[in-house]
Amino acid sequence: MHLNWLSGLMSTDLGIDLGTANTLVYLKGRGVILSEPSVVALKKGTLQVLKAGKEAKAMLGRTPGSIVAMRPMKDGVIADFDCAQQMIRAFMGKAHSRRAWSRPRVIVAVPLGITQVEKRAIRDSVDQAGAREVYLIEEPLAAAMGAGLPVQDPVGSLVVDLGGGTTEMAVISLAGIVHSQSIRIAGDELDAAIVQYVKRKYNLLVGDCTAEAVKIRIGSAYPMEPPLQMAVTGRDLVNGVPATATLRDGEIREAMAEPVRAIVEAVKTTLEGTPPELAADLAEHGIVLTGGGALLRGLDRLIALETHLSVRVAEDPLTCVALGTGKALDEMDLLRAVCLDG
Fold first, then answer.
1. In the structure, how many helices (H) and strands (E) does the chain have?
2. CATH code of the domain occupying 187-256
3. Average per-residue pLDDT in the chain?
């Protein structure tokens, strides 16, 4: 017990879920120690980090001319290399607090189908931020491991990881991805659909952060009880002054219907491409939802109705990918089996 505690205290190895919306950091021996929005605030015209994470997200849309708040990740990959590097460095610094001298071994979860150029950008960013060794693992595989699925067994498991920029689904068996699909429709698309709906119906312009709050508080993929409503404030597009509208859950369900339908159809397409032997396993064990999008009310019920399979949300869907990177760090044989080359 004391030896385990001591090794956890001494370890600096990190697992990073570098997401479009949020970044989570797993410290070996201690678990998930950081979960922050993937946002960085820089002094304009420089790479000087003023804030990263929650404090930077609070600045989005509110910064004076001298400060730029931005999200360096888009659709699960790095859109701005320099900013991403600074954000990763800031998060690794927070994770290690006073142990800035450490050069950790780092495993990073990356989207399915990532290109060699994108792999290199992520490796270089983490390397420049102070890592000793960098490993990459595909997000659905990490999510399945974090959700406790038997990824190393000769049994098929289907995980659907709903992030901010991408929704990725993979059938996993024997520590590998047998069949997969990735679509660039996820949490951000749901937020954008709400923004457009409110703009069209109420002539009211609301920000992405407001739309996200609406989605979390009253959003659903399937009719729920009791009915919910929420007041939002934005800019009236007719006269330019602040105005308020009261939104109802049915409206938000209608607003998100198209992207939600695209996600459900992608799950069905993935099932259609699954080898017969593994399809039999899925019929027995069902589908597991991970990622922040798994928390959308009624999504599990809607997918279950459409696929005729049992669907469950992972115990803590937000941390599954980060926990999966941690499991890989704990087991070197597993890490070698699941990490990406190149």
1. 12, 18
2. 3.90.640.10
3. 90
